[in-house]
Design brief:
By secondary structure, the chain is an alpha+beta fold. Strands 1-3-4-5-2 form a five-stranded antiparallel sheet. The longest helix is centred in the first third of the chain and has 18 residues.
């Protein structure tokens, strides 16, 4: 898949008293970008739950905080799938301010049965769409 970029503006509520983005908000920014990536492929998460009993949950992540983002910065959150098979996706995600890398990491997302919260295979129609994007 080609890289997917999503713009995020840093609001006052995203920062600490010094105007620096609080570390956990980088996770929110990455989550929004993954949601928008899925939406760009034509998949709405509420429809996946209702029609296919399929939800996605973060399994694990490794992050590197390189430079601080600050109040009113315009950021780009980049998603790139590095693996999609079985019951999980693995993403490489990066957050930039202009060309400056602020945060990067890998995020593993599991596909779960919405009723049992147990792993289930990623639906084939999603994998097919991802493969066509590569």
């Amino acid at each position: 898949m080609t890289d997917f970029d999503w713009p995020i503006r840093v609001y006052y509520e995203d920062t600490d008293s010094g105007g620096v983005v609080y570390h956990s908000n980088y996770l929110n920014f990455m989550e929004r970008a993954r949601t928008e990536w899925l939406r760009s492929l034509g998949f709405e998460q509420d429809k996946l739950i209702a029609d296919h009993q399929c939800i996605f949950a973060v399994h694990s992540m490794q992050l590197n905080f390189r430079r601080p983002a600050k109040f009113n910065d315009l950021l780009q959150v980049r998603c790139n799938i590095i693996n999609a098979s079985g019951a999980s996706f693995e993403f490489e995600q990066k957050i930039y301010r202009n060309d400056e890398l602020l945060c990067d990491g890998t995020v593993k997302v599991a596909c779960l049965d919405a009723n049992r919260f147990r792993p289930k295979p990623i639906p084939s129609f999603i994998l097919t769409e991802i493969q066509s994007e590569r």
